[in-house]
């Protein structure tokens, strides 16, 4: 894996005072205002201080994190210990460091840099890295909308239609092995009873186009799926298998098993896990 694939960096500029924007990253109420569904403090304190232990839940993703660096109005860093609940009810546990750096560029503009490191060279972490980079891109955009426009769009931004796979940008070696003339997304996992499963997709396929639109990277894959939000659920998906280019019709889904749009306040993740395991074992 390339060295730059062990970390991600996202940058955004937001109109506002640095004190106001710092509040979102340094308090539990702030986190709940733009990203987390549930944020709790081990000592029930509202403000996050150095050494504090926190529990964040974002849909199907839980995070037991510790604040390891805190410089007022400048930088806050967390040691994240994630537990991701996957569509088949299995879980993936991993650790990352996430740093938030704030700079007041001028009287009304603040620069925010989010740096995440700790990824390894495994295939599943390649997906988590690209998924995380896109997630922070979406999250920072939502934060900008909240601060500048008063609009919390997180449910719309994250609830784009899915096909029920784990995918990431195909490597040069994977493209050569599949004899694909096009760049695309490598399918690491096709979940049982998902739209992709029902359409005949298999692990190792390279998805190259959606409705004739190239999806050369994970970013363009998600961006293209997002463009069908609240539109037709049926698309033509093009993939390569052993050098053969195949077109198949696929029905996009908003099922929370694949979108991850769980409300943990209403449905405990333990129950969601049980339900997903049962659904994955049903043969249609």
TrEMBL record:
<dbReference type="InterPro" id="IPR036034">
    <property type="entry name" value="PDZ_sf"/>
</dbReference>
<dbReference type="Pfam" id="PF13180">
    <property type="entry name" value="PDZ_2"/>
</dbReference>
<feature type="domain" description="PDZ">
    <location>
        <begin position="147"/>
        <end position="243"/>
    </location>
</feature>
<dbReference type="InterPro" id="IPR001478">
    <property type="entry name" value="PDZ"/>
</dbReference>
<protein>
    <submittedName>
        <fullName>PDZ domain-containing protein</fullName>
    </submittedName>
</protein>
């Amino acid at each position: 894996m390339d060295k730059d694939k062990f970390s991600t960096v996202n940058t955004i500029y937001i109109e506002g005072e640095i004190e106001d924007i710092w509040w979102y990253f340094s308090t539990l109420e702030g986190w709940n205002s733009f990203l987390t569904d549930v944020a709790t403090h081990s000592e029930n304190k509202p403000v996050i201080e150095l050494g504090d232990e926190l529990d964040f839940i974002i849909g199907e993703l839980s995070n037991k994190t510790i604040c390891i660096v805190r410089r007022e109005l400048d930088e806050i860093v967390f040691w994240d210990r994630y537990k991701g609940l996957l569509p088949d009810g299995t879980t993936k546990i991993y650790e990352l460091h996430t740093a938030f750096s704030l700079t007041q560029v001028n009287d009304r503009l603040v620069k925010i840099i989010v740096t995440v490191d700790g990824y390894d060279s495994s295939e599943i972490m390649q997906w988590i890295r690209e998924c995380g980079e896109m997630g922070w891109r979406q999250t920072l955009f939502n934060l900008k909308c909240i601060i500048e426009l008063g609009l919390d769009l997180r449910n719309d931004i994250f609830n784009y239609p899915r096909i029920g796979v784990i995918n990431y940008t195909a490597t040069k070696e994977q493209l050569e092995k599949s004899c694909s003339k096009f760049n695309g997304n490598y399918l690491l996992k096709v979940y049982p009873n998902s739209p992709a499963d029902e359409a005949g997709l298999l692990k190792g396929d390279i998805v190259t186009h959606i409705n004739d639109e190239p999806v050369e990277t994970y970013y363009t894959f998600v961006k293209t799926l997002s463009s069908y939000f609240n539109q037709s659920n049926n698309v033509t998906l093009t993939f390569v298998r052993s050098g053969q280019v195949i077109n198949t019709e696929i029905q996009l889904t908003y099922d929370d098993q694949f979108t991850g749009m769980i409300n943990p306040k209403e449905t405990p993740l333990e129950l969601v896990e049980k339900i997903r395991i049962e659904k994955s074992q049903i043969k249609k």
